[in-house]
Design brief:
With 105 residues, this protein is of the alpha+beta class. 54% of the residues lie in helices and 28% in strands.
Length: 105
Amino acid sequence: MRAETNSGQKNIIIVLLLAVILVIAAMTNPKKDDYSNWVKEQLVQNTDGQLGKALTTLFAPTIVNESTVAQNYVFFSVFRTDVDKYHITTIGLFNNYIPIENNTE
């Protein structure tokens, strides 16, 4: 009888832990604006010169926002950005971004 109780308690703990993880994932699922700002930061870091950084800071969020399709799956999002010949697919979860596809034509 005691082994069944311990097993039941372990199952409850596992379910509760999973529920907490899913709630945190849903609460930290990045939005399209968050993604645009992240892309801007990445571009600024990889841009040389003050003028290039200033122009990137000014125009990148608008360009990325207009050329990105976001699919929200509650616990994570998929962002597909198409700018000219560049195609980038990124997964966003827990306020982090994981590029999964980066193609140029």
